[in-house]
Specification:
The complex is a heterodimer of chains A (1132) and B (148). Chain A has 1132 residues and is α+β, with helices and mostly antiparallel strands. Chain A has 24 helices and 47 strands. With 148 residues, chain B is of the alpha+beta class. Classes of the chains: A alpha+beta (1132), B alpha+beta (148). At the A-B interface, α12, α15, α17 and α21 of A face α1 of B. Chain B: One of its GO terms (biological process) is endoplasmic reticulum to Golgi vesicle-mediated transport. Chain B: InterPro entries: Longin-like_dom_sf (IPR011012), Sedlin (IPR006722), TRAPPC2L (IPR044760).
């Protein structure tokens, strides 16, 4: 039997459509007929009625109808359903035969044509004898017909034609061959469809009518057959609801059949067919849950109906097919818009189908493999006279046999044997793989990555069984990493075992080594003896020998593999295999670390590499090398087997390069960093570990970054969480989990052995030359060479500070803007051990605020590290924050000669400029000198001498001085004039260092100067005495070019009697001065207000006597009258 | 975290770690065909993951721990349960085992969860390590015996 034996017949799987035969059309030679036929069958869209058309010749022989049975009494059915039945009704027996005939109503030869047509109808009728098939006639006409009823000739001739052909009026159609052909055709086929439906309706009734003749004992098969037929006719009628009903009944009836070994296959076959129909219709009705429920029921009912034990593989094949076809149906429904979900999708059915296919393969192996020499029986028991079966699901050697026991046991044996032999040749793996790959596609679609992986593993295993090792390995390799990532070691181990077998059988050295390494390691759950076996094989491969075959391999393949491996030996040159460890979990683990996150340049960089093996036997390696980011150091981090050429894989536990299982080994490396690497990072880029001889085959395990394989990160995390007390190991032993990772280190400069001290007296005073003394003392053992000092404002501060800070080496001159804020690389020469350098620096801060000053001392010194001489550059930084404050504040004011505050000064009238210098410095300040530089608009009345020269001010002390000045006349009566500047020369009084004098210039404020028309001043003694006359002389000066009338009066006072003009009016000539004399006679002692002098200028009414009075003294001190000889009062 | 899987008749219990989904505990009765059950537990995580991600969006934290029947296969029923810390419990039971209804499975899960909580409370247990607890073993064994 062909592998397609289990496939469902196509007539079952198609959608049944009403069958209408068209005759009388010559589609080959007649263009009109061709057009009509094309209109029927070409481009049928979904909205056209479901009919399958066929063009048949007018005299076509339709299948003969068997004579109708009148009684079922003696009839014993031979099977459930004939194999030809469905095809017969789909493609052979039409529901309607349509005769096309070219005839116009006004045809001149009407009579003749009418009878010819009638003859043709008769021929068709004859060949359909016994069938209920309808016949219809279509007249192809050239003219467009008139509307019905108008053409009397037409209706008359139509009824005549109907009569002649024995047709009802409903079966005669007219097809005008005009432009609207398709429209007419659609109307025609709708009419045909109605006829066809009537035909199938009648067929259903006909089948139904048999029921009453049946009895339940002998005609059980017929119950099923009839229900199936009614269902099928209903489908042809497009009545899917009823079809489903009939099929369901048929399905329940089929399970009422007496089942035994001989008819089991027939029952299952038919049950499968009917189930298929039901599920299909359920999906079509958009009730997928019904379909699934039906299918489950079907499987539950049939699962146990195995039938003949010798043909058990038939059952599993059938089961597999059931699942597969349901999967197909489901998938098809999805393509038509059904939504599936993760837990209910076609994938599950394909998977189950694959499962049964696997089962089938296994059973076939058991049942068909015993006697390999057994030949195919002759004559072929599977041969039938017709070449096909009469009934579905029957045995070819006993067709139609329905009793419980087989008629001929010898034939039965031969038949079974023939089936078994056939089964042996079936390519089961192909079937399984196809099903699995279907399932994989589905699970991929429905987000089941793990299910997908699982199925791919199964596919891989199936390829392995099918001896397609390349594909097997490809699939297994693909999914392996998923299981590795998810840490399902049991599953990974099983996959690895299969993969190892594949690579062994193919003689793939690299894969073989990779898988072995993982299977021997900690990710493998294999028992110890298996690991031991694999490790021995691995060592053999590394020593270029043929490994022992893997267990349970096909002996033929093993032989071929051994040949392959032997070939590999002869090819052996130096073949290197590199394994990137991060993708695997090999049996060697590695951790590389720097001992410290940073190393000084004058100490050796230390690096430890920890290596551990998880294999059952000790293993020797030939090389351990560390690659660093600066490859120049690689040479120092290399451990090579000195005994090259020996059989290095021989384990010997004493040696350094032998790993004992479970023990952590530590390898220490050190090297001296290069001076140019100071400030750079050194990283471990990888650690390499070589197994095998360098000259021969060797494996190079490569840990990128110096540690970690596919499982380590999780292990590290778990170890870090672990509560477990780290047991103290003896010196040589290291607890693997406690080894931390330090995969990079910084090379930093040597620690400087010098001291840098700063001596100064903060804060600095604005604009002074602030002295800071830097003392550098060497504590080195050797000469410190090329000492360079960089001093000044630390870069990176406010930009304004750079502008307002100056630094210089010489304190003798005052800095200006040309000096920089930072003096770089001041060469200071060499320093012998213990020697020191003192360097004064002067800093001038123009603005107040705090500054960070940097003192950076760099030098080089030679040192010996690990016997290597290197020149180390060292440097030491000192920073200091310095505040800048103002040394003193100067307050200035203009006052009158009476020390009254002046808003403005008057031309030619003397006034005082007063200065108050308030020290704000925490240190004493010596005022060296002060000086007023007057502007041209002011003149000093006497030679101005500094009154504060040499004065030393302590904190918050104040020094004052004043200058007598006057203003020459100004142009416009009033104007604001500049006063000049005040210069103070000062210095900090310091015991610490010689300080230089700083000149601080203070701009004097502007002042308003005003002309005055009349100047008054008085001349009077400094005091008076009671009852002693004192004379007061008032001078009035006319300062204008005009003659002025002045009115003067003196007001009486209680304290004085006086003599002189009490009230006078006089005239003063331009530039002239008038003098007035009064004698005051004090009456009371003490400060007494003088009698008030009122001056009234007639010409300048705005000059009040008040203003003028300011120039005059207002009071005088009057002493009491002394007694004669009483000198004490005199003295007081 | 844990995936737990109990096939009954053939009964298997698997517990898987939360984000990485590796097994913390797997036990099956009988022990032959164990590998196949490991695969069953592993593949069922697809459904568990999908269910968790779906629930997370809709209901936030207020979710039912018991996920119910994950998917039916021909021979087994696979049930799932997820703790709040995303430890997954899976029980696989023989399809033919009709004595175990939803309620029984639910209470089995609850028992497992309680027992698992006890394991977690053990200060000497490092979360994430495979479970090696006699008390847990005996509870699982008892449950399996009862279920078979």
């Amino acid at each position: 039997m062909s592998p397609a034996q289990w496939d469902l017949p196509p007539e079952l799987c198609c959608r049944p459509m009403a069958f209408v035969a068209l005759t009388g059309l010559d589609v080959v030679y007649n263009a009109i007929h061709r057009a009509i036929w094309d209109a029927f069958c070409a481009n049928r869209r979904a909205d056209r009625v479901p009919i399958s058309f066929k063009v048949l010749p007018g005299d076509h022989e339709y299948p003969k109808c068997r004579t109708k049975r009148t009684s079922y009494e003696w009839y014993i059915p031979k099977g459930i359903l004939k194999t030809g039945w469905m095809n017969k009704h789909l493609n052979l027996v039409p529901a309607l035969v349509v005769l096309f005939y070219e005839l116009d109503w006004d045809d001149p030869q009407w009579k003749e044509k009418q009878s010819e047509c009638a003859t043709k109808v008769e021929i068709v009728r004859t060949s359909l004898q016994g069938r209920n098939t309808k016949v219809a006639v279509v007249l192809i006409q050239k003219k467009t017909p008139l509307p019905p009823g108008e053409d009397l000739v037409a209706s008359e001739r139509a009824s005549a034609l109907c009569g002649a052909c024995d047709l009802s009026g409903k079966s005669l159609f007219v097809l005008p061959h005009t432009d609207h052909l398709v429209g007419y055709i659609i109307r025609l086929e709708n009419a045909f469809y109605e006829h066809a439906q009537t035909y199938y309706y009648n067929e259903i009734r006909r089948v139904k009518s048999h029921k009453e003749f049946l009895n339940k004992t002998t005609h059980q098969l017929l119950f099923v057959r009839h229900q199936f037929k009614m269902g099928f006719f209903s489908e042809l009628k497009q009545d899917t609801q009823n079809a489903l009903k009939y099929y369901r009944t048929a399905y329940s009836l089929i399970h009422e059949l007496r089942a035994h070994e001989t008819n089991m296959l027939e029952i299952k076959t038919m049950a499968g067919f009917i189930n298929y129909k039901i599920c299909r219709l359920c999906f079509q009705h958009n009730t997928p849950l019904d379909a699934i429920a039906q299918f489950r029921k079907h499987i539950d009912l049939c699962k146990k109906k195995i039938g003949s034990a010798e043909l058990a593989f038939e059952h599993t094949a059938w089961m597999s097919k059931q699942f597969q076809s349901f999967g197909d149906l489901f998938d098809e429904a999805i393509k038509l818009g059904l939504t599936a979900i993760q837990t209910q999708n076609p994938g599950f059915y394909y998977q189950q189908a694959a499962y049964y296919a696997q089962e089938r393969k296994q059973q076939a192996g058991q049942l068909c493999g015993q006697e390999p020499g057994m030949g195919y029986p002759a004559p072929d028991p599977l041969e039938t006279p017709s070449g096909a079966l009469d009934f579905y699901g029957q045995r070819p050697w006993r067709q139609g046999h329905q009793s419980i026991d087989p008629p001929d046991s010898e034939k039965e044996k031969q038949g079974i044997l023939a089936l078994q032999v056939k089964e042996r040749d079936v390519l089961h793996s192909e079937l399984i793989i196809a099903l699995l790959s279907n399932a994989v596609a589905q699970f991929k679609k429905y987000k089941c990555p793990r299910m997908k992986s699982h199925l791919m593993v199964q596919m891989g295993e199936e390829y392995y069984h099918a001896k397609d090792y390349t594909k097997a390995l490809k699939l297994l390799d693909y999914v392996m990493c998923d299981y590795r990532t998810e840490r399902w070691w049991s599953l990974l181990t099983s996959i690895l075992c299969t993969a190892l077998k594949c690579s062994y059988l193919m003689g793939q050295v690299k894969d073989y080594i990779t898988y072995s390494m993982e299977l021997v390691g900690r990710a493998s759950v294999l028992p110890e003896e298996q690991k031991s076996r694999i490790e021995k094989n691995l060592i053999k491969v590394l020593m270029n020998e043929v490994p022992e075959p893997e267990p349970d391999c096909d002996p033929v393949s093993v032989k071929a593999a051994q040949m392959l491996w032997s070939d590999r030996i002869s090819l052996a040159g130096s073949n290197e295999i590199t394994i990137e460890v991060q993708d695997y979990v090999p049996f060697v683990q590695c951790k590389a670390k720097f001992l410290s996150p940073s190393f000084h340049i004058d100490e050796p960089v230390q690096l430890h590499v920890y290596v551990r093996a998880d294999c059952p036997h000790p293993v020797r390696f030939s090389k351990l090398c560390v690659s660093l980011s600066n490859q120049e150091y690689n040479q120092y981090c290399l451990l090579e087997d000195a005994s090259k050429g020996k059989d290095i894989l021989e384990p010997s536990s004493q040696e350094n390069m032998c790993l004992v299982p479970g023990k952590t080994r530590k390898y220490c490396f050190k090297f001296v960093a290069k001076t140019e690497d100071v400030g750079k990072k050194i990283e471990i880029t990888s650690v390499g570990f070589m197994l095998g001889r360098e000259t021969g085959r060797h494996v190079y395990l490569n840990w990128r970054g110096g540690w970690g394989d596919a499982a380590s990160s999780h292990e590290t995390l778990q170890a870090s969480r672990s509560f477990k007390r780290r047991t103290r190991f003896p010196e040589q032993h290291v607890d693997w989990d406690t080894v931390s990772i330090q995969s990079s280190t910084m090379i930093i400069a040597r620690v400087p052995k010098i001291s840098v001290q700063l001596t100064h007296e903060p804060p600095t005073l604005t604009k002074e030359m602030y002295c800071m003394t830097v003392t550098i003392q060497s504590e080195e053992d050797t000469v410190a060479k090329d000492i360079k000092l960089t001093a000044g404002l630390k870069p990176g501060q406010d930009a304004n500070l750079t502008q307002s800070t100056q630094i210089t080496l010489s304190g003798s001159e005052v800095c200006d803007d040309s000096h920089p804020a930072l003096l770089p690389d001041i060469p200071l020469g060499d320093l012998q051990p213990g020697q020191k350098i003192v360097k004064p620096l002067y800093i001038r801060c123009v603005s107040t605020g705090s500054r960070i000053l940097l003192f950076h001392v760099a030098y080089s010194v030679s040192a010996t590290v690990e016997g290597k001489d290197i020149t180390c550059k060292c440097h030491k930084d000192e920073t200091v924050t310095v505040e800048t404050v103002v040394p003193f504040e100067v307050a200035m004011k203009f006052v009158s000669s009476k020390f009254e505050h002046l808003e403005r000064v008057y031309v030619d009238i003397p006034f005082l400029l007063m200065m108050d210098i308030l020290s704000a410095s925490p240190w004493p300040i010596e005022l060296v000198n002060s000086e007023v530089q007057l502007a041209s608009s002011m003149t000093a009345i006497d030679q101005p001498q500094s009154q504060v020269e040499g004065v030393t001010l302590q904190t918050s002390e104040c020094a004052s001085e004043c200058f007598l000045l006057k203003c020459p006349p100004v142009q416009n009566g009033t104007s604001t004039v500049a006063s000049g500047q005040y210069i103070i020369s000062w210095k900090r009084k310091s015991t610490f260092s010689e300080t230089s004098v700083v000149r601080t210039i203070i701009i004097l404020p502007h002042v308003m100067v005003e002309n005055i028309p009349l100047y008054v001043h008085a001349e009077l003694p400094s005091f008076g005495r009671v009852r002693e006359s004192l004379s007061v002389r008032y001078h009035l000066e006319n300062r204008t070019g005009l003659v002025q009338d002045v009115e003067i009066s003196v007001e009486p006072s209680d304290a004085f009697m006086f003599s002189g003009l009490k009230q006078v009016r006089m005239r003063i000539l331009p530039g002239a001065e008038q003098e007035m004399l009064y004698n005051f006679y004090p009456l009371m002692a003490g400060y007494q207000v003088l009698p008030q002098l009122n001056i009234n200028l007639m010409r300048f009414p705005n000059i009040s006597s008040q203003l003028l009075r300011r120039f005059l003294p207002s009071r005088i001190f009057v002493k009491p009258q002394g007694r004669n000889g009483d000198t004490s009062i005199e003295a007081a | 975290m844990t995936t737990r899987d109990v096939p009954l008749g053939t009964v298997q219990i698997g517990i898987c770690s939360g984000h990485v989904n590796y097994p913390l505990y797997i036990r099956s009765v009988p022990t032959q065909g164990e590998l196949k059950f490991h695969y069953t537990v592993h593949t069922s995580l697809d459904v568990v993951e999908e269910k968790i991600s779906g629930v997370g969006k809709a209901l936030g934290d207020q979710r039912e721990l018991y996920l119910g029947l994950l998917y039916p296969t021909e021979d087994y029923k696979v049930y799932g349960y997820v703790t709040n810390s995303k430890v997954k419990f899976v029980i696989v039971v023989d399809s033919s085992n009709t004595s175990l209804r939803d309620n029984e499975i639910r209470s089995m899960f609850r028992k497992l969860h309680n027992s698992f909580t006890d394991v977690m409370c053990n200060p000497f247990y490092n979360p994430g390590d495979p479970i090696q607890s006699k008390a847990f073993d005996s509870i699982v064994s008892a449950m399996m015996v009862q279920a078979c």
